[in-house]
Design brief:
The chain has 507 residues and is α+β, with helices and mostly antiparallel strands. It folds into 3 domains: 44-73 and 206-404, BirA Bifunctional Protein, domain 2 (2-Layer Sandwich); 87-196, Herpes Virus-1 (2-Layer Sandwich); 412-503, Rossmann fold (3-Layer(aba) Sandwich), CATH 3.40.50. It is 39% helix and 24% strand. The protein contains 17 helices and 23 strands. It has a 7-stranded mixed β-sheet. Strand 19, helix 14 (425-436) and strand 20 form a beta-alpha-beta unit. Helix 5 (102-128) runs antiparallel to helix 7 (142-163). The radius of gyration is 27 Å and the shape is globular. The protein binds glycyl-adenosine-5'-phosphate. Residues 218, 220, 250, 252, 261-262, 265, 267, 269, 332-335, 372, 374-376, 378-379 line the site of glycyl-adenosine-5'-phosphate.
């Protein structure tokens, strides 16, 4: 049994070895928290994007997409609140010289207490056997109740101090909880300070403050500032949505955990504009829809969970995360937020342009309310990759690593392989390849033994391997091998495309 940390290391190494993800500028020893997607990574990424775009835009008659510029007028970020409030509270350890997010240090401490509760549950389950009632245990066991009370009181204090900007109290809390630096083990902390996460640069050649612009920290604002354009030109009627995917940039101070937290990443966001007062109904609708989207990839429901925000942003009246069971534990993958009319109203005030919708059914104008779904593409990639990574011991005693990526997301759909590199088999295999390449991304390879070539395709998650052998020359049949079962069946060349497309659709 490998532990989660080892498993995560293996996944990262595999992603590099097989052309999925490389450290950015690796020949110069890399750039922290920035990654490049390789030849298979980009295909998987594009397939995830495609799945999201289709589900949001193509399958909803009232959602359209846009592609806004990364650079935006600087007032955008004043209006959105990012200039004043897009900060992380950071604390340094004077001995290790490492910097941490103060709230994450406290949340990690809370996770440890939660771990103690889980231990109690496990112990009791063992003791009581089949008659064990977990809910009853959690609500009555004195030790568990004590832990729960501790958690509640820490959370209350942390979030109220953060909200009121009482950073000195956050530091006091860290000290009182006896939190030590995981590197140096010391409690020698600096004060807690706020750091803005936006990257800035200069527009044009003048380096004056007036020319300062930002790299967008979220794609959402490109949607809000285009609300009027899209609503008018698309003659959109509320409720309707605008979707967008693209790069976002955040100067994450604590950037680690591979592509989970990066400084340059991609978001897929949708803002759904609704009547004021109807936002919570739509919030529930999108919570359910988005979870269905995740489950549509064939990953079981046990790998996902909802997490309600303890600390609502000042503009939100409801917020849930969808968390995924990453190798480092359950962490945020997507956010669903009811953002009220905060953004549109603020852009209305800062731009002086009226941003309202005339509702013909109500015969009145209003600033629409917004329900947002916001998912990280790179985190979805990591979720798919880490769930797919499987080490298997085969019946003959050998081992294989196979990426059980849902076939419709797999980078390569079929590999076409001549059994040997002679007797006219390569020529025939290339004919087969040419017949399939217009429908699917295929792969052709003739080097090495067929077994080695199968293993390489397993390692990049190719669902089908088509082998051209001597019998093919006689009767135009090939073998088609399925990745997960490794079962092979003999089929006519004219049937391959139909077989693959039926199986890809099944998912
Ligand atoms: N418009 C709302 C918004 O941006 P967020 O929770 O800050 O909300 C949404 O970000 C999603 O973007 C997250 O759930 C996560 O999947 C992804 N994300 C955020 N920061 C990220 C980072 N530094 N690296 C990778 N993905 C990130």
């Amino acid at each position: 049994m490998v532990n989660n940390e080892d498993r995560f290391k293996k996944i990262i190494a595999h992603a590099k070895e097989y052309g999925f993800v490389f450290q950015s500028s690796e020949i110069y020893d890399g750039l922290a928290a920035t990654y490049d997607y390789g030849q298979y990574g980009v295909e998987l990424k594009n397939n995830i994007k495609n799945y999201w775009w289709k589900s949001m835009v193509q399958y909803h008659e009232n959602i359209v997409g846009i592609d806004a510029a990364i650079f935006m007028h600087p007032t955008t970020w004043k209006a959105s609140g990012h200039v004043d409030a897009f900060n992380d509270p950071m604390i340094d350890n004077k001995d290790s010289k490492k910097r941490y997010r103060a709230d994450v240090l406290v949340e990690d401490h809370i996770a440890k207490i939660e771990g103690k509760i889980q231990k109690e549950v496990k112990k009791a389950a063992k003791r009581f056997g089949e008659s064990f009632d977990e809910q009853q245990f959690l609500s009555t066991n004195p030790r568990v109740l004590k832990y729960q009370k501790q958690i509640e009181s820490i959370k209350k204090r942390l979030y109220s101090s953060l909200e009121d900007e009482r950073l000195d109290d956050v530091k006091r809390l860290i000290e009182e909880l006896g939190i030590v630096d995981p590197v140096s083990g010391s409690r020698n902390w600096t004060e807690v300070r706020q750091f803005n996460l936006m990257f800035s640069t200069q527009l044009g050649s003048l380096s004056e403050d007036a020319n300062k612009i930002y790299l967008r920290p979220e794609t959402a604002q490109g949607i809000f500032v285009n609300y009027l354009n899209v609503q008018k030109t698309g003659r959109m009627k509320i409720p309707f949505g605008i979707a967008q995917m693209g790069k976002a940039f955040r100067n994450e101070i604590v950037a680690r955990q591979f592509i989970f937290r990066m400084r340059e990443f991609e978001q897929m966001e949708m803002q759904f504009f609704v009547r004021p007062g109807e936002e919570l109904k739509w919030f529930e609708y999108w919570k359910e829809q988005r979870m269905k989207w995740h489950l549509g990839m064939g990953i079981p429901a046990s790998e996902y969970r909802f997490h309600e925000h303890d600390n609502l942003a000042h503009y939100a009246n409801a917020a849930f995360d969808i968390e995924f069971n990453f190798p480092m534990g359950f962490k945020e993958l997507e956010g669903i937020h009811s953002r009220t009319d905060f953004d549109l109203k603020s852009h209305q005030e800062h731009s002086g342009k009226k941003i309202q919708y005339f509702d013909p059914e109500l015969n009145e104008s209003y600033v629409p309310y917004v329900v947002e779904t916001s998912i990280g593409l790179d985190r979805t990639f990591l979720a798919v990759l880490s769930y797919a990574y499987t080490e298997e011991k085969l019946e003959d005693g050998s081992e294989r690593v196979v990426l059980k990526i849902p076939p419709f997301l797999a980078p390569i759909k079929a590999a076409v392989l001549p059994l040997v590199k002679k007797d006219g088999l390569p020529e025939k295999a290339l004919e087969v390849f040419d017949g399939l390449k217009y429908d699917y991304l295929c792969f052709y390879e003739e080097k090495d033994s067929i077994g080695k070539r199968y293993r390489r395709q397993d390692a990049i998650g190719t669902p089908y391997c088509i082998t051209v052998d001597h019998k093919t020359l006689e009767d135009n049949t090939v073998t088609i091998r399925e990745r997960d079962t490794m079962k092979q069946e003999r089929v006519g060349i004219d049937k391959i495309s139909e077989i693959i497309s039926t199986r890809l659709k099944e998912k």
